[in-house]
Amino acid sequence: xxxxxxxxxxxxxxxxxxxxxxxxxxxxxxxxxxxxxxxxxxxxxxxxxxxxxxxxxxxxxxxxxxxxxxxxxxxxxxxxxxxxxxxxxxxxxxxxxxxxxxxxxxxxxxxxxxxxxxxxxxxxxxxxxxxxxxxxxxxxxxxxxxxxxxxxxxxxxxxxxxxxxxxxxxxxxxxxxxxxxxxxxxxxxxxxxxxxxxxxxxxxxxxxxxxxxxxxxxxxxxxxxxxxxxxxxxxxxxxxxxxxxxxxxxxxxxxxxxxxxxxxxxxxxxxxxxxxxxxxxxxxxxxxxxxxxxxx
Length: 296
Known about the structure:
Blueprint: H1 2-30, H2 33-59, H3 73-103, H4 111-142, H5 145-177, H6 185-212, H7 218-229, E1 236-245, E2 248-257, H8 263-280, E3 284-292
Parallel strand pairs: 2-3
Antiparallel strand pairs: 1-2
């Protein structure tokens, strides 16, 4: 697991380096706000990808004398940092786009510049589709929030690159038709990028904060309750607690059994329950406490 997660995180760093450099060069050549904003976005993604690579390596360290629950929270913290970096991107894009619209300074491109712009955007889309699919697959396989955050970032890059592509096309159409609104297409495209990123920030940030604050995962909580109820020897239960730490789901519960059962029989029931929960989530850590049921 550790090797596969680290490998895909490292590939993500290399892809971010390539795209950041590529977009920056073409953005400077064309003077396109859309492409330059994408270069900044990719630059922050590079920082995030490096943080993710570090987080993935640290999160796989086993528990020790100072960290009884392991180091999985570093992945959730990494996802939160990536969210903050995305917000910074949004503020810059919105400020620059509104400034350009207010000043009446649109974008004028030569045919050569347009061709370069199209090349960089299409290249970005191809690379981002490839790496986001790879990241999504590994993130889902190992329940890695850090890799999921990277995958969401690069999925966002796909959407925003498509918007920039449309912006560049609109600018060229303006040169032929002189339809006024198309003169600001590049700035409008940048604003649309910002809106997309703000939405992603909200979803990603909320998920990271929920994990850091140990909010019980709703679906897993309901599923574990159903597993407990499926055991006919468990009369009742209480103090069911679930929390995520990286890819690990920690589950604690107190179950009530018939007081006439022997210690061995009661222990066997708790073991079977633990195995059932681990079968449901192979990365779960389960702790079951058994109590004799008191009839009132």
